[in-house]
Each structure stands twice: as C-alpha cells, then as structure tokens.
Design goal:
By secondary structure, the chain is mainly alpha-helical. It has one domain. It is 82% helix and 0% strand. It is built from 5 helices and no strands. The longest helix has 34 residues. The protein is elongated and about 70 Å long.
C-alpha cells in the first residue's frame, strides 16, 4: 500500500508539474508572437482606444497616457534606430524556440 501511495503522489506531482509547464509554455508562445510587430500592435491599440489624434497632454494621467508614451517611444526609436526591430524579432524567435523545447519536456515520459 505504501508503494501505491508513493506512485499516486508521484502521478499527482507529475500532473501538477505538467500543468505549470504547459501554462509557462503557453505564456512563452504568446509573448513571442506579440513581440514581432511591436510598433504596429501599439498603433492598433491606440486606434482601438480612439487616441490617434490625442496628444500626451490631452490624454491626462493613466492608461491612455502610458499607451501614447509607449507608442511615441516606439515611433521615435524605430525612426532613429530601425535596427531595434531586428533585436525584438530575435527575442520573439527565442521565446518560440524555448517554448518548443518545453513542449518536448511535456511529451517526455518520466516514468
């Protein structure tokens, strides 16, 4: 009975580890996919919130001001240093590669 209990505990622990690993893998994939088009994503968020023609001073404090600050920062950075997009592409790619490696760990039969 003691061996059965250890086996059940091990199976329960394995399920929990796979759940956490699966959630982390999904977060990596989502993070990787959203890192590719940073500037266009921010332009889309600004448009969805109706802030296309709003200045930072008009936005006031809060979320809308933060969104406009990030959008403006990406615009200025990409205009002056276009190679920055290359770095975020590699970051996104690394997230996706690591998520594939974790997927392999999820498939591994551990006993």
């Amino acid at each position: 009975m003691n061996a059965n209990m250890r086996s059940a505990e091990r199976a329960s622990l394995l399920r929990k580890l796979r759940l956490v690993l699966g959630l982390f893998t999904a977060a990596l994939v989502l993070s990787g996919l959203t890192a590719f088009p940073l500037k266009s994503e921010m332009e889309h968020v600004v448009a969805m919130r109706g802030l296309e023609h709003v200045t930072l001073t008009e936005a006031g404090p809060g979320f809308d001001r933060w969104i406009l600050t990030v959008r403006n920062g990406l615009r200025e950075s990409y205009a002056r240093y276009p190679w920055l997009a290359y770095g975020t592409d590699w970051l996104a790619f690394a997230h996706l590669v690591n998520s594939l490696r974790l997927t392999r760990a999820l498939e591994n039969k551990m006993g």
